[in-house]
Design brief:
Number of domains: 3
Strand order of the largest sheet: 3-2-4-1-5
Enzyme class: transferase
Radius of gyration: 23 Å
Subcellular location: Cytoplasm
Largest sheet: 5 strands, parallel
Helix content: 25-40%
CATH topology of the largest domain: Cobalt-precorrin-4 Transmethylase, domain 1
Number of strands: 10
Order of helices and strands: EHEHEHEHEHEHEHEEEHHH
CATH class of the largest domain: Alpha Beta
Number of helices: 10
Main location: cytoplasm
CATH architecture of the largest domain: 3-Layer(aba) Sandwich
EC number: 2.1.1.198
Distance between the termini: 83 Å
GO molecular function, one term: rRNA (cytosine-2'-O-)-methyltransferase activity
Structural class: alpha/beta
Length: 287
């Protein structure tokens, strides 16, 4: 009986890896990791450890780092490997590559060079959170990570406040309380929310409630956090606080008239009304 892994066709394989529980790896992902000519990883130590857990070894195959700080030269070497007929398996530190993880430019350049890009699906914090949040999943918007600064964060929230879909955010535990406070102010205190922490891990927690009265109790501010927020009610427009936050951010780089046009279009408010608010904000800042 031949125990050698089947030969993979040349191309880039985007391999989803567990977000916590190592047993959440798929059989196909293990097959690809066993057979790939090159393994590229956001964190090579994590990738080697995962392979070790499942009885795999890189052997003499290259196991190279590829992350947000990789250079165009690093990317070019992986693209060249594909063009030369090699199978390159790319894994992020946890979850599905490209979902708030590196890999987009690599996949785009492989495709532009005529190479094949193949998804090897599996674990994703986004989908796991949607599964347990108790909110509608027929339409959702993945918003990734919010900005760290409060003003920019409120502006980003204002941009999606009126979207009629469940909203999903990744958040740092250090910014959790501040992010929830801004969400209550911009999205509205009555919006339902689920705070999902350490999904699939030993200390998994899911706390639900309304943004204005959410009680996190003794939730530890550590680990990976996903916030799932209920959709806007049909016809619900962004409130004045959301409009003002968006205007302040827009007026940092645009003239008052242009800022009003952009914000009115993004938030579904009458342009004349938004323009008057912009003038008022400009007068306040000039005092």
């Amino acid at each position: 009986m031949n125990s050698e892994p089947a030969r993979l066709a040349a191309g880039l394989y985007l391999v989803a890896t567990p977000i916590g529980n190592a047993r959440d790896i798929t059989l196909r992902a293990l097959d690809v990791l066993a057979a790939a000519d090159v393994i590229a990883a956001e964190d090579t130590r994590t990738a080697r450890r995962l392979m070790e857990i499942h009885g795999l070894s890189p052997g003499g195959r290259p196991c190279v780092a590829y992350h947000d700080h990789s250079t165009p030269g690093d990317r070019a070497r992986l693209v060249r490997a594909v063009r030369e007929g090699q199978a390159v398996a790319y894994v992020s530190e946890a979850g599905t590559p490209l979902l708030a993880d590196p890999g987009f430019r690599l996949a785009a350049e492989v495709r532009e060079a005529g190479g094949a890009v193949t998804a090897v699906p599996g674990a994703s914090a986004l989908l796991a959170a949607l599964s347990v949040a108790g909110l509608p999943t027929d339409r959702f918007l993945f918003c990734g990570f919010l900005p760290a600064a409060s003003a920019a964060r409120r502006t980003a929230l204002a941009e999606v406040a009126s979207v009629p879909a469940t909203l999903v955010f990744y958040e740092s535990p250090r910014r959790l309380d501040a992010a929830l406070a801004d969400m209550a102010e911009v999205l509205g205190e009555d919006r339902p929310v689920a705070v999902c922490r350490e999904l699939t891990k030993r200390f998994e927690e899911v706390t639900t409630g309304r943004l204005g009265e959410l009680d996190l109790g003794g939730m530890v501010r550590k680990g990976e956090i996903v916030l799932v927020v209920g959709r806007a009610v049909a016809g619900e427009a962004a409130d004045d606080a959301a409009v003002d936050a968006a205007l302040r951010e827009a007026m940092r780089t645009l003239r008052v008239k242009d800022a009003a046009t952009v914000v009115a279009g993004a938030l579904g408010r009458p342009r004349r009304e938004v323009y008057q608010r912009a003038l008022g904000l400009g007068a306040e800042e000039g005092d």
